[in-house]
Write a structure and sequence with these properties.
Elements lengths: L3 E6 L6 E3 L10 E8 L2 E8 L2 H17 L10 H16 L2 H19 L9 H14 L2 H20 L26 H10 L4 H11 L3 H5 L6 E2 L4 E3 L3 E4 L2 H4 L6 E4 L9 E3 L2 H13 L19 H15 L9 H12 L4 H8 L4 H8 L10 H10 L8 H10 L1
Antiparallel strand pairs: 1-2, 1-3, 3-4, 5-6, 6-9, 7-8
Helix pairs in contact: 2-3, 7-10, 7-12, 13-14
Length: 399
Amino acid sequence: MARGSIVKRCPVCKTNRAGATECRHKEAVYSVVYRVCKKQYWETVGPNKKDAERKLAGVIAQINSGGYVKPTDIIFKDFSGKWLEAYARVSVKPSTFRTYENTIHHHLIPAFGDSELKQILPERIQSYVSELRKQRSPKTVNNVIILLRTMFKYARRWKYVREDPMQDIDNMPLQHREMAYLNVAEINLLLKHAHEPFKTLLLTAIMTGMRRGELLALQWGDLDWHSSRIFVHRGLDWSSRNEAGEGKQRWQFVSPKSKRSERTIEMSPALREALQIHKISAPVSQHDLVFCNNNGNPLDPDNLVKREFHPLLVTAGLRKIRFHDLRHTYTSLLIAQNENIKFIQSQLGHASIQTTLDRYGHLLPNTQGEVGQRIDKQIFSVPAEGFSYQSAANTVLTK
């Protein structure tokens, strides 16, 4: 049977002995010592003795069961760089990669950068999360937690740690945020004050629910005039000048957000007519873009919002909403005309119908009050010969 011990070491009083209790300096730390195949290993745990006891118990149990793996020494800063290049860069979209990179640089490296990965324990992570909650919104905190959870999942797979310290770290509860969308009167007011070609772009956003990147990557070849359908095949990724590099192209076409995002959207007659008129006067694009600048290149998404959309809201006397809320507006229109929820899911390109229900379920009409009458109508509209529940009830009541 494997055995081990806990050692307390202090750089102040120079203690280095098993079970030392006299030292009370805050610089003192506990380590676990054990042997595997006659080779001795030391692992520094931290200032909490109970953490060291749990660590030693786990190591001994793994050694005795034959499942022990010695973690590889690496500091968090080096691991994060390796994780970004080996996993994130080839697995996620460029915009997501940039978000990961910024979160690691601004949040995680300042907190854990020079620490050995195997020494980052749940207690320390929870303390960090508690401090972050005081400074950032719950959504930002959850984004950091989710990223850290993903990183440690790969740290465990790659044998840098034996146990995942994130498994007991919970996300923060988020307060319900009222969804913003335009009603019919507001839609007409917005379009009334809009000028071409931005007016047709807005109309397309409102009447298709396409994401901004999907809309700006839309090509004329994606429109089927005969069947009145729009095919979503790609999105637009736009990076800053610093990220792209001086003088380099800042945009690229990317695959849609998910597999379900590659979809077919029904095109209304009014939208079809507006797009046909727009095609006559639109600049010629070497990329076959429906909406582009005078040079035929994609529109800058940020400039579109800051220079066109937000000023238009002010001119129209409407409250400030996000461009993405035009997607919610489209969904509210579909719900208002009692479209099937499965159809709504397909038009929005949600990977799961649960996503559609979670986001828009509160907009669905509440008709449960008449459910009993509708069931009666289905079953008893043509009663069996010589029998009806109404006559049976009357018979009971007269007895």
